[in-house]
Amino acid sequence: MSERAAHLKIGLVGFGTGGLSFHAPFIDAAQGVELVGVVTRSADRRRVLAEQFPGVPAYDSVADLVRGAREGGGIDAVTITTPPQTRRELVLEALGLGLHVVADKPFAPNAETAAELDDAARSAGLVLGVYHNRRWDSDILTVKAVLDGGELGTITRFHSRFDQDQPGLLEGGPAGGLLRDLGSHLVDQACWLFGPVDRVFARLEETQTADGPTDAAFVLVLVHRNGTTSDLSGSKLNNLEERELRLYGHHGSYLARGIDVQAHAIFAGQRPVDAPGTWGREPESAWGTLRTAAGARKIPAEQGNYARYYELFADAVRRGIEPPVTAQEAVEVLAVLDAARTSADSGQAVAVTGPFSG
Known about the structure:
By secondary structure, the chain is an alpha/beta fold. Helix content is 34%, strand content 27%.
């Protein structure tokens, strides 16, 4: 672990693919954050923890983590990244122990339960953030920069396609599926860029898994309140690895095909703490093209880094402000996913409703 003064001491609950690959390396790389313990009962995962994060202790439960960390110097927060069906109870347990919480997505089975957790955190005076880390992807940050530049004018359509050749990472059964996994990210990105969604149309492709049937591909059409339409799609089992983003505006278009650069680097054994200046930026070969009446030009990629999420979360705890992704925003994403499931079952477009205002 990098040696530096830490302002936020955080524990990690769960050390599967998410905890090992998408949380621990970025906690380690985040300025002002220290990983003080990991909850995992797996002997294999404890061995990996000792090899990759020497000195970080392992615990059997959240209660053991809190007890051990407090004896060893303190703990402020935990990240919950256990299987989806376990997260509600663990979030409530952590809040009950007086801890701020980062909840992995989807952090609840539906929007109603997510709103319950949001209320519980607010009542306890604690920060509850949701790990929609893909707002800090290089390609989506570049899209945001293009939008902020204003050259495309009013945006009428946004296309986001994300195909992953990762059959072994598909979570089976009713609590799993690609819609609530990758779909959570794509819906969050669309809502972050274009605001609330009025209605959604969805098609899902199901597959059989050892844990029961689940969705392995989706196509979503979101109609945003501002008039923009977002077309989102993803797949997991089609032997295809591709990321494409398109913007269509009154004054032109933007097209980019990326490579999911942070995930590729992590799975290749690289670590963000080792190269903070160059980490997470799409290579020049993947830069997008902006086309207007003035011509076409390449747009340099913004730097992405999921460690930024943890730095902003630490700042939120320290200053008593909203986290980088609020539970309220995640409730709204889940309301869209709930409506998408209803749409897929009925074959009709469905209005997005939920236990939130606005």
